[in-house]
Design brief:
Shape of chain A: elongated
Shape of chain B: globular
Largest interface: A-B, 52 and 68 residues
Largest sheet of chain A: 2 strands, antiparallel
Strand order of the largest sheet of chain B: 1-2
Oligomer: heterodimer
Structural class of chain B: mainly alpha
Number of domains of chain A: 1
Number of strands of chain B: 2
Strand content of chain B: under 5%
Number of helices of chain B: 22
Strand content of chain A: under 5%
Helix content of chain A: over 70%
């Protein structure tokens, strides 16, 4: 990859990481801890919203975040063609 | 068949499986011993990482802790899963690209310094030792309570099994055993969870049962409302409301997250996949596998708490079911009839409360309290052992590689052959197993406290040094060393002061900024970062070739050669 490409690839990478970490911070620290009492005034079925985010919702969001990251990085890799990752390896030796 | 017979059956079958895998996956080179040859499929690595990560604490203690902490228990749930987001986005792909075998490898090479390497070796060994003693103790407890063998014999059996596959197979043996152990532990956790969810709410998915309505037998209404109501009625803290201060919960969560991302036994798992792309995927799979247990745990906590109150409160002591006397014998549950009415009063007021319950009982005795079939009760023992042994093996490998690879090969004895290095690695595991076993049999009495140590130290030492090494090209050895030393010393000092020197001051009034020793690692992380950035600003920038390394690890493509 040329230097210029490498630089813009890294910029794209940083943008992805930074925006996903914003969501990560928002859902866990802001919704799950700082605003939990406020959100608890909203009820969804048997859950108070703040409590649910703190104990289950945030974990679901974490999983989604990592898979969005995988997808976005795959797209970014594809955009910079000569950085194509190699094929999946074998599932281990078995000698 | 009795619970005892079922338990022996499950333990023997699973242990034979682990031994079988060990024989099949012997390691013949250092590359196989340290990183399973770098050929592990990302899905298999995801499972292995999940088992590596979920320890005796996650399996046995976490649901119970949440059950008694209510909403405050949240920091375990978010802290121990949110760290994977950091690991996936900030560390795993880049460290995989860098290649090599260990965390001190990266620190030493990136910061072109033997001092930095040795500090990293020291941190890795301290963190892993602290952690592994708890696992051995966990295995001992399971053996003694479920199989009614002596705790010493229990630990020895556990040690022998771990020793067998870790010494023979190294990372390769550990990886494939961990895959099997993940399957055992998740099955063992989920089956009782599903049963108890159906029983209390009629919903077969515990994660959803958590927010469902109770069946008629349990008095109807939403589970969490009922639990809040019961808590109020009996004078306990209201389940869905927090008691701890917001800043303490904030800092504990952050410390657990940074610590999770900085734990060397988890990081090295990402060295075992073939390339950068697989490292990213593998982190995603690991988080899914972990999330299955972590979203079920708060549900189990709530079911079990409701069920426990329903079963014991105001019940005749003489009419308690069989499990009660069985767990009384182990001192996990104790009844003292303060008002001599022959009934159990389980209430929030310590003056009137007659029942003391160890929180571990929530997972260990939950199936019995719920009256589930014998084979389900027996599963729990096999699951808890899988959780303890898989984590112990991962930690022992870190200790072994730190000594044979980082300390001997890369520092003290660079001329040893690969064969010799492999021999030293096996010797190091052998010695580490013995020491861990000793502490498992003679627990230092502060295992619970020292876990705070492991996370706090990983957060305050490794995490910032690794992140800066990747994201800040200008970061030099002076900065990194200053950061690690300041972060580590500050965190260790704070914990040692409040846990060992002056435990009397270990309360909200004594803490700095209201941060408990469990959460201080987060402040340690910030201190590490600030010290590193400040020192780096006033010292000379890293050499050209190191900056080149940083540029290379930032790009995807073929991973650097090992």
């Amino acid at each position: 990859m040329s230097d210029k490409n490498a630089q813009s690839y890294w910029k794209g990478n940083l943008r992805i990481v930074f925006s996903l970490l914003l969501v990560w911070f928002f859902i866990s620290f802001v919704c799950g801890i700082l605003l939990v009492d406020v959100l608890d005034t909203i009820r969804i079925g048997g859950f108070k919203l703040g409590f649910w985010i703190a104990q289950q919702g945030s974990i679901l969001v974490f999983v989604i975040l990592v898979f969005v990251y995988i997808k976005l990085m795959d797209d970014l890799d594809a955009k910079y063609e000569d950085s194509k990752p190699m094929e999946d390896g074998d599932a281990g030796d078995s000698e | 068949m009795s619970v005892q017979v079922w338990t022996y059956g499950f333990v023997i079958v699973t242990f034979s499986l682990y031994i079988g895998i060990a024989i099949w996956s012997r390691a013949s080179s250092t590359k196989e011993f340290y990183i399973a040859g770098g050929h592990v499929h990302p899905l298999a690595n995801g499972m292995a990482t999940a088992a590596d990560w979920m320890s005796a604490a996650s399996f046995i203690s976490m649901a119970g802790l949440i059950s008694f902490l209510g909403r405050d228990g949240t920091f375990y749930l978010m802290g121990w899963t949110g760290g994977y987001v950091l690991l996936a986005l900030l560390l795993a792909p880049y460290l995989r690209k860098f290649g090599k075998f260990t965390v001190p490898d990266f620190i030493g090479d990136r910061y072109y310094s033997q001092t930095a390497r040795l500090i990293a070796v020291f941190c890795a060994i301290v963190i892993s030792f602290v952690y592994v003693c708890g696992q051995m103790q966990g295995a001992g407890i399971v053996f003694s309570r479920f199989l009614e063998v002596d705790i010493t014999l229990g630990v020895v059996i556990g040690m022998t099994i771990v020793f067998f596959y870790a010494v023979m197979g190294g990372m390769k043996g550990i990886t494939y055993t961990q895959v099997a152990q993940y399957c055992v532990l998740i099955f063992a956790f989920m089956v009782p969870a599903v049963f108890i969810s159906i029983m209390t709410t009629g919903n077969p998915v515990p994660q959803l049962g958590f927010g469902s309505e109770l069946t008629e037998a349990f008095g109807g209404g939403y589970l969490l409302d009922r639990l809040d109501g019961l808590s109020r009625e009996l004078g306990f803290d209201v389940y869905t409301e927090g008691q701890k201060s917001t800043q303490d919960v904030f800092f504990i969560t952050a410390a657990l997250m940074f610590g999770t991302a900085g734990l060397p036994h988890v990081i090295i798992r990402f060295f075992t996949v073939p390339n950068v792309r697989d490292a990213r995927r593998s982190a995603g799979y690991a988080l899914i596998f972990i999330a299955i247990l972590y979203t079920a745990a708060p549900a189990v906590a709530a079911f079990a708490r409701t069920n426990l109150i329903n079963t014991v409160n105001n019940a005749e002591y003489s009419e308690m079911p069989e499990w009660f006397s069985k767990w009384e014998k182990t001192n996990l549950i104790a009844f003292e009839d303060k008002n001599n009415d022959g009934r159990i009063q389980f209430v929030g007021d310590p003056e009137k409360n007659e029942l003391t319950v160890n929180r571990d009982i929530i997972v260990l005795a939950n199936p019995e309290i719920a009256g589930l079939p014998n084979w389900v009760i027996a599963l729990v023992a096999a699951g808890a052992l899988a959780a303890a042994l898989s984590t112990a093996a991962g930690l022992l490998l870190v200790i072994s590689t730190s000594i044979s690879h980082d300390l001997l090969k890369r520092s003290l004895m660079p001329d040893i052959t690969e064969k010799q290095e492999l021999l030293y690695a096996r010797l190091a595991i052998f010695v580490a197993v013995l020491i861990a076993g000793y502490y498992g049999i003679n627990p230092p009495g502060y295992v619970a406290q020292v876990v705070a140590f492991a996370f706090g130290l990983a957060a305050a030492s490794f995490f910032p040094a690794l992140v800066l090494g990747i994201f800040n090209k200008r970061m030099n050895k002076e900065g990194a060393i200053a950061g690690m030393v300041c972060g580590f010393t500050f965190t260790a000092g704070y914990i040692i002061y409040f846990k060992f020197i002056n435990p009397a001051a270990d309360n909200a009034a004594g803490w700095w900024f209201g941060i408990s020793p469990e959460g201080i690692g987060a402040l340690g992380t910030l201190i590490n970062l600030s010290a590193a950035l400040l020192v780096a600003k006033f010292s000379k920038e890293p050499p050209e070739e190191v900056q080149k390394i940083v540029e290379t690890i930032r790009l995807p493509g073929e991973a650097m050669e090992h």
